[in-house]
Every structure is written in structure tokens, then in C-alpha cells.
Amino acid sequence: MSSFVTEVLASSGKLEKDDLACKISKLSRKVEETKEEVTDMINKKYIEFIPSMEGAEELLAQVLSVSKDIDLLKSCIENEVQQNLHDAVTEYAKLKQQLEKNTAVINLLKHLQEFDTAVEEYHRALQEKNYVIAAKQHGNARASVDALKAWKDNELPLVRALSSEVTIQRENLIHHLGVEWQKLADWKLPSPKTELTSVKSFLETVLHLNRGGSKADESVPHALLLSVLQALSIQGELHKKIKLFGQVLFKFMLKPLIVYPSLMVEVSSQPEHGAVLTLQCKETKAEHPDPSQVYNKVLTVLKTLHGNLFNVSIDEKKVSEILGDLIWEEMSECIIRECLVHSIPTNSNQLAEYSEVIKQTEDFESSLKEMGYLAGDSTDLLKYARNVNCHFASKKCQDVIVAARKLMTSEMHNTVKITPEYKLSIPKLPSPSGGEKERKESGKKSAHYDQQSLENEKQLSPSTLCLPVCRISESVQQLMDLAIHTLSEAVGSSPQCAVQLFYTVRNIFHLFYDVVPTYHKDNLLKLPHLAAIQHNNCMFIAHQLLTLGFQFKPHLPLKDGVSYFVDLVPGFRRLGARCFVAQMNVQKAEMLERLSTARNFSNLDDEDNYSAASKAIRQDISNVDGERLRTLCQTIIEEGPLVFNPLPDENKNKKYQEEVPVYVKKWMTLKEVSMVLNANLQEIVDRWAEGKGPLAVEFSCNEMKSLIRALFKNTERRAAALAKIVK
């Protein structure tokens, strides 16, 4: 580099100019020295040269003239030198720019050479199925193209062509890796047209696992398997490939095994394919899968995958961990929703046995951690299993509320008899903790009072505070049994569960207060006997709630001041009374309507007034009376037209007999009455036809209702029929 610079500077004349400047500088110093010597000589020899002053002045003038010439020469030389220096700098800048261009071209050629080398190595490695080297060489080729793109002329067609080639080769590599991956994990899935709604639809699912070739040591992954996974990782495709595999695995194998108890997984070994996973159907009566069964099936699948495919570390992370991160959340939610929810006990006595399920869940997660599918100490799955008391209470409360609502919306007319001796069937409760001392003190007090004489010898009646004889709905009796059973469950449960169950029982009675009057509203207004039963139901519940809380109070972990059920008693009494009074008002209105034709019971000595009053009071037609009335009406209807017999020929008289309704205005009314006397309620309603039928033509609404009330007993069906007699 130094010789090259020397040649350039020499060619520009810079060295010669530097030598000339040095000579001029020396000459200038010599002139200055000469001037000083001449001046000193003049000063010293001034006296000696006085006679020849004119010669000295001439000499001095010559010296000064020489000095001026020297200065002029110096100035010219300096100007020349500066011009030459400027030209040299300009030339140097041009050479430097050219050098930079040459350097860029050299770098460009270097990147092209690296790209060419990388592509050659890439193709060679791809043919040899050395996918890791192929992936790395492809990365080198891409790096070379990226370096070319950073050049200022990156829009060159060559750069665009190379970039396109890199993209094509990447897709080619991904395709080869996909083919190899499919050989390693080959799925056979149900047809896309198949609806995945039953066990049979999943029986076509088959997974062939190949470790990449036969090996003596099965514990070490085959080189091809490792090469494919590492190459996918280098290309940034490993996570995507595992995610897609995990989605198919969960949808077509893991989820069906969790959801369907009859679906089993079978693992077989084949020399050509390694392990083969297939789904088989096994008959079972279980509606929901057992947790241990689900865990075993899932572990069978994941262990097989781990032993044949995923027991490989890429970048210090196991492939099984990648799969676990992708499917664990969805899989654990499915296990909870389809399995653990249904395994929650329905009885508090079964809670102790649930510890086995918790142990199975812990072992399941431990196995997953050993294989690398799961990381962390505690997951939502294990937390759910351990929180069984809370889930039991929630499930129990939900079941109780559903059962209670079903009873409340059932028929009320099925009744049972309640006597003063009736008592609720309360199971034997365990002795409350710390109660021994209290019982001893209570015994001492009772003994003390027994020794004292009572001032009043009269005793209360055995019937005091007993409910009178009555009939209540069978569903209400079952509702009270449900409440007592739920409270008994609370006694043997954890404190949190006991409190939740207690308030669920309170919610049952709140629900009764709101649901029954609303759901049975119409029937309670139309059917007097149902209103009476509802009154008895409310009074029965209120009576039992007076003491129900005190029977369970020592056994429930509730705070002091809780009113238990006593606060609900007034509300139930008001509810029963309100229903009873409402029905009384309905009956009163009906009686007033019936008596409105009695002419105020005045002037009963008059036969017409007496007949009207008697009819208003009785208004009742027995079955026998109704049958006889129908017979009489039918006789009139059949034989009455025979009166119209003006002609000797009987056949010709039919024309006049058919014209009876024209001359007898109430003839059609009589025929409708005869029909009603022989019809049931539904036939009457159909003939009324919402005020548009033949009955509606002959009778008013009040007349038709009065006739129905007279012919039929007061039942739900009669009330429903009366409600439909409107115009």
C-alpha cells in the first residue's frame, strides 16, 4: 500500500514540489543572513566608508533590489506550490472514490461467491437427507442475499432473482421436511364428510409412529428424527408443526377417549411402522367416564408418543414440553368438564372415598412431568380435584334446587292426610362437640326443678302446638323431606359446605313462596279445593319451620344470631291466608251471581217468586235428573215434528216436518240443550267454538256457564271449560 501511494504522489509532482519549497526556504534564510551581514558591515565601516558614501548607497540599493527579487520569487513559488497541492488533493479524492467502488464490487463478488457456495452445499445436503446442514446452508444463503439487499443498488435484477431463489429453496426444504414428518407421524383420519357425533365416527382414526429407522438402542432417538426436528427448528417451523399435530391429536384421539367411556386405545408394534395407535369400542353401561380410566387412556397415548417421537431435546427444550404447552390447557378443561364434574359425589358419605380420585390425579400429573409434557407444581386439574368439598356443595345445591322446583310445579291435587301425631322424619344426628358438659348441667337443673312443687297443677293439652287434621299436597310433604335430607347432609359436611347447604334449604322455601302462587295462579282462582290445599300447604310449612331450625342448630357451624327458619313463618301464613281469602271472594261473587235471579226473596207467597228463589238456591242437576231431562228433550225432538202432518202421504209430510225451526223459535235451543245434557266438557267447549259455534248462537255466556256449573262438579277440567266460554 505504501509503494502504491508513493507512486501516485510522485506521478502528481508532489515530491518535487516539496524539494523546491525546501530550497526556497534555505535561499530565503541565506538572503536574510546576507542582509544582516551587510548591515553589520556598513555599521562597522561607516566611518571608513564616509569618503565613498555614494558607492555604499549603490551597494545597499543592489542588496535591497536582490531582496525584493528574492521575495517575489518566493511568492511565485508558494503560489505554484499551493496550486499543485490543490490538484494533488483533487486527484487523491478521485482515487479514493474509485477505491471505494472497487472495494464494494469486491464485497459484492464475495457475497455472490458465498451464496453460490451455500446453495451448492444446501443441494448436496438435501440429497443426502442431512437436513440440519441443509437448513444452516439455506440460512447462510439468505444472509448473503440480505447483505446484498443492504447495498445501495439493491434494486438490481440480480438481487431480486437471488431473493426469489432463496424463497423457493426454503419452500422446497419445508416440503421435504413435511414429507419426512408425515413418515414419522402418519395419520389416518375419518372422512371430512363424517359427523363426529358418536363413538363409531372415531373408530377410523389411526396413528402410525416411525422413529426414523430400525435401531438397536430404542432409548436413543434416530438421527433422521433428530435431523428433521432440528431443521424445522432452524427454519422456525417446529412450533407450527407441533401445534398442528397437537390439534389433530386432541380432536381425533385424546378428546374422544376422554368423552366416551366405551372408547379404548390399542397400541401395537409393527416392524415397518414402529408403534401404531388405534381406537377400539368396548361396550359399557357407564354414562360418564371414570377418572382413573381417562388418565390411563391419555397416558397410554402420550407415553407412546414420548417413546417414539417426542423424547428429543431441541435447543435445550424437549419437544414433549412444546406439545404439552400447546394442548394441556384444553385437555385439562375437557377432563374437568367431561369427567371430574360427573365424578363429584352426590352424598356426603362418599366424600372420603374421593381421596382416591385426588391420588389418581396427582399420579397422572407426576407421569406427565416425568415425560416433560407438564411443568409447574399445581395445575387447574389438580386444584379442581382437591377442591371437592366446594364442588360437592355446589353440585348438591344445584340438584336440590332443581328437585325442589320440579316438586313445586307438579300437580297439587294428589294429597296426603296429616294428623296431630304427624312428625317429620329426622334421621339420628351425631352428638354436637362439647355437648357432654351442657347435658350434665341440664340434667342437674331438671332434677332441681323436679324437687320443687308446681303452683299450678294443670297441664297443657297433648294437642297443644299440633297441626289440626288436614290434607296437604303430596309434593309439599316430599319438599319437606328434601329439606330435611339436605340439612342432614350439611351436618356431616365441612363447615363451608354445611353453610352453603343450609342457605340452599332457605332458598327452597323462598322459591316456594315465589313459584307456586305464580305457576298455579289460574287454578288457585278457579278451583276452590286447590285453594284450600294451598292454604293447608302453607300452614303446614309454617308449622314445621317453627322448630326445624332448633333441631339442627347444635350441629351446624353458623354464627350466633342466625334466625334459621323462624323468620319465614309469618310470610307463609300470610301466603296461605291470602290464597284462601281470594278464593272466598271468588265464591262469594259466584253466589251473588246465582242469587241475582232470586228477586231478593221477596213475596214468596207468589208462586213465580217462590219458583225463581228455589231455582236460584238449588241450581243443581243430578246425573239422574240430567239423563231424564235429556230423554224428555229427545222425545220432543223426535216426536214433535210428527204433529206437522197435513197430507195423507207420509213421505210428502217430511217437507213440512223439516220446517219446524221456522215456526218454533226455540226449537234449535231445545236441540242444543239435549246435546249438552248428553255431552262431556270437551264436546261442549268444541261446540261453543270460542263464541262462534251453534251453542253460542242459542245461549249467552252466563247461561252457558250456569248450565255447565249445574251439570258438572267443581273440578280443574270444569274450571278450564268455564274459562273458554267467552265471546
UniProtKB/TrEMBL annotation:
Designated name of the protein: Centromere/kinetochore protein zw10 homolog
Domain ZW10 C-terminal helical: 618-725
Coiled-coil stretches: 17-44
Keyword hit for Cell cycle: yes
Record-annotated Centromere/kinetochore protein zw10 middle domain positions: 177-408
Residue intervals of the Centromere/kinetochore protein zw10 N-terminal domain: 27-118
Family: Belongs to the ZW10 family.
InterPro entries cross-referenced by the UniProt entry: Zw10/DSL1_C_sf, ZW10_C, ZW10_C_2, Zw10_middle, Zw10_N
Species name: Phoxinus phoxinus (Eurasian minnow)
Chain positions covered by the region annotation Disordered: 426-456
GO CC annotation terms, alphabetical: cytoplasm; nucleus; RZZ complex
Compartment list: Chromosome, Centromere, Kinetochore; Cytoplasm
Major subcellular site: nucleus
Domain Centromere/kinetochore protein zw10 C-terminal per the UniProt entry, residue ranges: 465-593
Residue ranges, compositional bias (Basic and acidic residues): 435-448
